[in-house]
Write a structure and sequence with these properties.
With 114 residues, the chain is mainly beta. It has one helix and eleven strands. The longest helix is centred in the first third of the chain and has 6 residues.
Amino acid sequence: QVQLAESGGGLVQPGGSLRLSCLTPNFVVREYDIRWHRQAPGKEREWVSTIRRPTGVGTTYYADSVKGRFVISRDIDKNTVYLQMNNLQPDDTAVYYCNAYTWWGQGTQVTVSA
């Protein structure tokens, strides 16, 4: 069973920053596209960002709602994909999940509130 593990969530004020981490097995971070998604209370899960596998040049993609504020990156040596989130707003409040292929983590809660 492949397991992904998110961490780094928490409570932050509007305008603040958080960095989420997704720890994966080594073969996942090396060979698969990895995505971040989020699900806000009462809403459907939505895609946030993708980083292509290294053989896909590691190209990154972002949802319009986070473009210019979030940055996805990969550290193969640490088996980790990061989501740096800046200028957080209340609408960013959600459980954030990382995903590769059909594998999902358990999620980490991000709450943006004054």
